[in-house]
Amino acid sequence: MTEFDFVVVSNRGPFTLESRPGGVVEFRPAAGGLAPSLSGALAEEPMGSGSGVLWVASAFTEADRLYASAGAVATGQDTLKLRMVAVTPEIGRAAYDVIANGTLWFLHHGLFDHARRPCFDRVWHEAWEGYCQFNEAIADAVAEQAATGATVVVNDYHLALVGRYLAKSRPDLATAFFTHTAFCPPEDLAMVPDGPRLELMESMSCFGACGFHTSRWRDAFVRCASAVGVEAPATFVAPLGADPARLDEVAATVACRSRLERLEAELDGRTLLLRSDRVELSKNLIRGFLAFDELLEASPQWRGRLIFYARVYGSRESLPEYLAYRTEVEHVVARVNERWGESGYVPVVLDLEDDFEATVATLQRYDLLLVNPIRDGLNLVAMEGPAVNQRDGVLALSREAGAYDELADVAIGLNPFDVTGTAAAISSGLSMSLEERRVRAAELRRRARSRTPAHWLAEVRRAARVPGQRGPRAWGQAGD
Ligand code: G6P
Fold first, then answer.
1. Which partner for 127 in 60, 98, 302, 426 could form a disulfide, CB atoms 3.0-4.6 Å apart?
2. Does this model's pTM top 0.90?
């Protein structure tokens, strides 16, 4: 079995496999968020003398599951091999739906509706066992294929317990765990039952180092560890960057150019307010539409002249909360359109198609980009938009997004819960002088293009270490 010097691990891998007629298996790039960024960074990895990089991920489709028994498989990218890990559908659902998405995601983004949830009952405790088994299966695959002293970078809350298993089976490995989401404060962590809460914090502390996008989430993690009496491992801060080269490449395609032309025709000279997100509770879509409604009410000059384009695509639809949220989003949009629409003018365009070329086209064209999450680890759209926008577009950005820490002086900050305040932020952005727009957009663009996923990965790799070895700090902002 090939041994790898560098192993990256995430729940969702870079490709989803689909069986096609005639026994053909198609590798389809995974959509959204983490996987494309990580793929971009790995594409720049030098082959060196070793065996390249192994990406360990969980099997989602039937075809993925078939490949799980094949060990490390070629991906078509010279330096990258993929190892799928399959668990039973029950364990998979317990780990992904109940614990990762239904509990940890809600916990870290402050999304629980406390009168009803969370509810840590018997079913939940059984699911926690499934989460442990899933994490162990992933750790076993890593342990099997990592070379002696290899570096292992594990990503996100689906895999928070992998550190505990690896520290036991492969204490020689240099490990880092990177959390791409926000991290909850100790007061919220206190809701989790004692046993799992301690397991979670102890397991994260079994990694050589834990990384976050901003010092806010890092500090919350350290406070959580201290609250349960666990010594935090080395920690570091390394924000992810947009991938300007990939965005430029997409922008230059015929498909993207034709979508941009179509959009111009649809807009017919109107001003474009844009949002680009998954249909996700933390993204705060509904308050965004309510703010637009208030804006049209308070500022009649925008009626008929401003279009709110929502490029959003479905996400985690195996969870009832997400399905209900999508329905609610559709209702709110219908209400706003009914109120302000007129012949030839649809105020809100809800575009649910998952089409990256269309997304890049709208990012190039916006006059104002609304990014108003309730809480967000970073929010890459806040970087991707300014990186490709061609109209000195304004960024209205939630103070609760990690990206705000880097862009506070050039974006218009907003409180995501304050609908009236959000309407005011949009209004002030749209009435900004052309000169101020130009100056801000130039600086936004400079910052958005200055860091890439490859910078991020290099920093995470440097921060990885053998658990228990605190040693010198790996990177400028890192601290213990
Ligand atoms: C978002 C988050 C990532 C997370 C991913 C999982 O992109 O920012 O931190 O890993 O969602 O998404 P999935 O579609 O696999 O549930």
1. 98
2. yes
